[in-house]
Amino acid sequence: IDFAMDSMSNEVYKAHHDTVYVVLGFASPPTDQQAANKTYTEKLDTWATHFLKGKFVGGDKLTIADFKAVPLLIAAMQPAVKAKIGLTVSDRVKQYVDDFCAVVPSSKMLQSAGGYSIVEFLAGKM
User: Fold this and answer.
1) pLDDT of residue 126
2) Which residues lie across from 59 on neighbouring strands?
3) Are 23 and 70 in contact (CB under 8 A)?
């Protein structure tokens, strides 16, 4: 669990910054956006391959690592990210986020919070 969180922070997050944060308006675009997208996809796919052997990082049980990863990943899979920079995430990552949201009632705030959720904020970037 610690390794999954460390990997998300140290491997995936930098690439998230150079892609999703650009769409959110929190970071300037990198010199080569397509290369940044490729790096993000590779790092995220590696993370998913190593840590999503079951439904969640902990197999069938949620762990703190899932609560760390999902807010970042739900942002990455939004239509505005694809429309603005051409980034897409794998079906496995989408299923992981959907599975998490299905069993964590409070995750609704990631999708709907009176216009202030991650999903709503990104929808405003279209």
Assistant:
1) 86
2) 56
3) no
